[in-house]
Design goal:
The chain is α+β, with helices and mostly antiparallel strands. It is built from four helices and seven strands. It has a seven-stranded mixed β-sheet, with helices on both faces. The longest helix has 22 residues. One of its GO terms (molecular function) is acyltransferase activity, transferring groups other than amino-acyl groups.
Length: 159
């Protein structure tokens, strides 16, 4: 599985990412019973203007999975801002591969997800992330924030 940096400023790339993002976050909104997820309100232009790094997995012209990473300034830490996989590609290791790939580039990673998004929570925990805190956004949404810290040079290959 090849992971490449995506050039989100290029309109065709941003449009493909935006389409997959909407499809993926609609599924998540249904799963967690919360229709107001911020990525569902993002425009194509907001995706194209993302200031971090975006990696993806593609097969021919099809985008299979995407991870948005916001590096911290002057640090070896970053936040996974978004991670999503095409519906028909779920449970094939694409999300795991994207997160593992990003783990090779930073010493500390943070990620937040809804407490009712059990598949995402299981993925992050299997990849060595530990829950740090929870934030109640409103009565229907609580976010769990996880942290991963590199322990040694070989830790990034641990699954």
């Amino acid at each position: 599985m090849e992971i490449t940096r995506l050039q989100v400023a290029e309109p065709p790339v941003a449009k493909g990412i935006h389409k997959l993002q909407l499809e993926s976050y609609q599924r998540e909104a249904s799963l967690i019973e919360y229709p107001h997820l911020p990525p569902l309100r993002e425009s194509f232009e907001e995706v194209a203007n993302f200031h971090g790094v975006v990696y993806g997995v593609q097969r021919k012209d099809a985008l299979l999975g995407v991870i948005f990473v916001e590096p911290a300034k002057e640090s070896t830490a970053a936040t996974i801002a978004k991670l999503f996989v095409a519906e028909n590609e779920g449970r094939k290791g694409i999300g795991r591969s994207l997160v593992t790939f990003v783990k090779t580039r930073y010493n500390t990673l943070y990620v937040s997800t809804a407490e009712r998004n059990e598949p995402a929570i299981r993925l992050y925990q299997k990849l060595g992330f530990c829950e740090k805190f929870r934030i109640v956004i409103d009565p229907w949404l609580t976010l769990c924030t996880f942290e991963w810290k590199k322990r040694s040079d070989t830790d990034v290959f641990t699954v």
